[in-house]
Specification:
Layout (H helix, E strand, L loop, with lengths): L1 H29 L3 H8 L1 H7 L5 H11 L3 H11 L5 H8 L7 H12 L3 H21 L18 H37 L6 H11 L1 H5 L7 H13 L1 H12 L6 H27 L1
C-alpha cells in the first residue's frame, strides 16, 4: 500500500505537471504548419541528421518534453505517414529523453539540492543523445506537405489534444505505480545484503529512474556519473511505456533498447570526463 501511495505521489508531483502540458501542446502543434516552419528554421541541423519536415519537430519535442514523449510522438508521426520507417527508427534511437524539468528540477534542485549539478546532468544527457544520433547511419530526408488541420476545426483539435494528453498521462501513472510496487519488493530483498548506495542506485534505476536517483545523497564524480547512466538508459518503467507506443508500429523495439543502453554508457563516460572541468 505504501508503494502504491509513493507511486501516486511520484505521478501527481512530478510526471503530471511536467508531462501533461507538453502532451497537449505537442498534439496541438502537430495539427499546424509549425513542424514545417521549425524544420526550415533548423534546416542545417536537419540536413546534417538526414531528417525531413517532421523529423526536427520530433527531435526538439523529444529533448524538451521528457520520457516517454519522444517515443510517443515518433510512433504517432510514423503511423500518420509523416515519417518514413527509416526516419522513425533513427529518431527513436536518440529523441526519447528525460526532460529539463525533471533533470534540473527533480534531480538537481530536489534530490541533490544543487541546480549546478542539474545543469551539468542535463548537458551530459543531451550530448550523449546527440552522440548516438550522429554516430548512427542517417536516413534520407524527404519533404512533407503542410496539413493545416487547425483551419478546419480548431475547437475539435483542442478537444482531441486534451483528451489524448489526459489518456496518455493516466497510462504513465499506471506504469509508475506498478514499478513503484516492483521497486518496493526489490528493496525489501536487497535489505538482506550490505550493498553500497551507488550499486543500489544502478539496480533501482534500471527499474525506475526517480527511485534510483533518490538513493544518491552526494554530488561526487562517480555519483553524478551513475545518475547520468540511469537517466541516459531510462529504466524499465520508461521502456515499458515507450515500447507500448512502439508496439503499435512495425518499428524495432530491440534497436531502440540497444540505443538507450548505448546512450547510458556514453553519458556515464562523458560525466566522468567533464566532471573535473566543471567542479574542480
Amino acid at each position: 500500500m505504501l508503494a502504491v501511495k509513493k507511486g501516486l505521489l511520484l505521478w501527481s508531483g512530478y510526471a503530471l505537471p511536467a508531462l501533461l502540458p507538453f502532451m497537449i501542446g505537442i498534439n496541438l502543434l502537430k495539427a499546424t504548419p509549425f513542424p514545417i516552419l521549425l524544420s526550415r528554421l533548423l534546416k542545417p541541423v536537419g540536413k546534417r541528421l538526414g531528417l525531413g519536415s517532421y523529423g526536427m519537430f520530433a527531435v526538439v519535442c523529444g529533448f524538451l518534453s521528457g520520457y516517454p514523449m519522444g517515443a510517443k510522438l515518433v510512433s504517432e508521426l510514423y503511423n500518420e505517414g509523416r515519417l518514413t520507417k527509416n526516419e522513425a527508427q533513427y529518431l527513436l534511437s536518440f529523441t526519447n529523453n528525460s526532460g529539463p524539468l525533471f533533470i534540473i528540477g527533480t534531480i538537481g534542485a530536489g534530490l541533490l539540492e544543487s541546480r549546478k549539478c542539474g545543469y551539468f546532468l542535463l548537458a551530459v544527457h543531451i550530448l550523449s543523445a546527440l552522440a548516438i544520433g550522429l554516430a548512427l547511419p542517417k536516413p534520407k530526408a524527404r519533404s512533407m506537405p503542410v496539413k493545416a488541420k487547425y483551419a478546419e476545426n480548431a475547437g475539435a483539435e483542442l478537444k482531441n489534444a486534451i483528451y489524448n494528453g489526459i489518456e496518455a498521462i493516466v497510462l504513465v501513472g499506471g506504469y509508475i505505480i506498478f514499478f513503484s510496487v516492483i521497486c518496493s519488493v526489490f528493496e525489501s530483498l536487497l535489505k538482506r545484503y550490505n550493498i553500497n548506495n551507488l550499486l543500489r542506485c544502478v539496480l533501482y534505476g534500471m527499474l525506475e529512474i526517480t527511485n534510483g536517483c533518490s538513493v544518491i545523497k552526494d554530488t561526487g564524480c562517480m555519483s553524478l556519473a551513475v545518475i547520468s547512466l540511469i537517466t541516459g538508459f531510462g529504466g524499465l518503467s520508461i521502456h515499458s511505456q515507450s515500447i507500448g507506443y512502439i508496439s503499435g508500429t512495425d518499428l524495432s523495439a530491440a534497436k531502440y533498447m540497444l540505443s538507450k543502453a548505448a546512450q547510458g554508457c556514453v553519458a556515464f563516460a562523458l560525466s566522468l570526463a567533464f566532471y573535473p572541468l566543471v567542479f574542480c
